[in-house]
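Fold these two proteins, one after the other.
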Amino acid sequence: MAFEPPQRLVRALGEMPETAQDADWLGQLPRLTEAALSRRGVEARRVQAPGGRSSLVVLVTYADGTPAALKLAPPHARPDRELAALAHWGGFGAVRVLDTRHHDDDGALLLERLHPEVSLRSLPEAKALLEASGTLRRLWVAPPAGHGWETVADRTEQQSAALRAAPAEVRALADTALAMRAELVAAPPEELLLHGNFRQGKVLAGERAPWLTVGPDPLVGERAYDLARLVRDRLEDQVASSAGAAGARRRVNKLADALDVDRERLRGWTLFRAVESGNRALAAGRRRDAELLLEFAAWL
């Protein structure tokens, strides 16, 4: 079968800083996919479409008909780190890894098959937040000794470089975000394994458990950083509501209290992550997304 990458993936990769490895990845994708299928002894059924913004997912089966999913991501996505995190969770709250070996030759992950068309976004908001909170709580565990994941301080320091060079229209919010980040990393309260990119769309329906998370961008640090991305889920609906700043702050407080996270630390990380994402969206030419994110950040 042909392994044509979904256009959503092609567009998303086009917005990323290009490296020599990643520039060649899309061109090599058919060969990498065939090699990964052969190496793991599974047969392709179809490419999941529209798929994600950072990987190709092929729905596959074993010779006995057992379903699975093969995920291929470009080198910058560090699939080895995702594999390590999923293996450490061992299927508790997260998709289960069916092959825990990392193959540098293809960087693919063989995972249990979930229902990609059914995420928490299919639920009413209140129920989705309840299920999301329960799933996220399961993921926050101590990292193994000698882990190779970056820390919240490391990742946000890299992101801060772009904020320091933010355009004039983002300057005031960027300065506020940078100041908050400096205060937050000065006294981190805990070091736990975090999902790194957790939101409702990253939690899919499964057979083994009702809801399981996928697509971690793992790092080590405090829970408030991980929860911050969930705060701004369904952002267009939040901005369109009449609640405005009061509604945004209520959402921060509600999620913080539900997961025993400090309210002010959650507010700080939510603001930083929204401004960082907004600045990145602006640089990529996604002005509508940038305006929503920056408006939300200003409410905080």
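Now the second one:
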Amino acid sequence: MAKPKITFICQACGAVYNRWQGKCDACGEWNTIVEESSAGGVAGGPQRSRRKGRPSALLPLAGENEEAPRIASGIAELDRATGGGIVRGSAILIGGDPGIGKSTLLMQAASALARRGAKVIYVSGEEAVAQVRLRAERLKAADTSVQLMAETNVEDILATLADAGRPDLVVVDSIQTLWSDTAESAPGTVTQVRTGAQALIRFAKASGAAVVLVGHVTKEGQIAGPRVVEHMVDAVLYFEGEGGHHYRILRTVKNRFGPTDEIGVFEMGDTGLREVANPSELFLGERNDKAPGAAVFAGMEGTRPVLVEIQALVAPSSLGTPRRAVVGWDSARLAMVLAVLEARCGVRLGSHDVYLNVAGGFRISEPAADLAVAAALVSSLSGAALPADSVYFGEVSLSGAARPVAHAVQRLREAEKLGFSAATVPSASADLPKSGISVRAVETLGDLVAHIAAGSASLSEED
């Protein structure tokens, strides 16, 4: 009998080595390479090499589907994040920090689908059936027809699904707990995670049932296990939220059947997650209008406009190297805005500590927040509060010019709906359809600084 081949696999990226080493050359992580046997693994064993291929049926591209291509869960925020509903035969990977509410969201989605007549099977690999039932009772979902199964063996799960008939949705919580007889490594390793995910995805494609996989995340916030699993599935969703805040955001980072920049906003309560139809009111709920250094940014998350408050604090520094602390925004982008303010506008911030925070723990990824950040910084430095009824959006170039951004009309409509009467935008975005909001156009960042300085001077004269 041939001796099984021993390989060493990185548990972070899936890179394969012939011998052990401390650092992975592919991803740069330390102490993530683990010894695994390739016998019985994916494409392993002599039986695999002698298997002959079987011809598959060729079908025309044009045709009619017997069923609706998407399943509406009944939870509007979840349907928004998935692009209008869960696609039949798709595999979705949901990641998030422990205790963030992944199991709560999926239990509520499973019960909502079951109430709409769908056949749902919930597979728990981390909790017993009694524990899942306790959560279902707390979420008022115990009266639905969701079927439970506490199992971690992939072959047993697939056999049960085959005997039970094709379900509409299968929830597997979580992919790291599954193990297969075809792999000899321990559960949670790269080989086991990849084997289990591959088997469940094959089942989804062959049967037409949608499969939702729950994945743990690392300290860096990425889904644990090999990155190849994210490439295998059809959609990857991250469930985000700060421990000190009661809201949760379901963010789409990959979706083969819809946009990849949509978000769903939820609020965590005693009876589970509640949908937030208007996130702007949530993020602006505790706003202090008279405090300097606060600017309201009209942003976009996919097709949804979201208004958030950007808070800045500029204080003299006693350190040789002033501090730059950022929460909710890109620190490199802040450094660029500070450099443009100093080089193009004459705003001296080199001897000041700068702290920037996006209120509510929200994360901004688009460069359209440059004007709002600059306005908050200048307001904090001058000590004059910005107008409470004004919003800001626009990109700043290295030359100091204010560049237009997309979806300006949607941003202004959202601001007008929430009671704002003025907006500061780049001059190229000022030629917009007439609305009830006053638009102030700026060509350069210097125009914005001059306007804030003029407002500060008039305020000092009145005092």
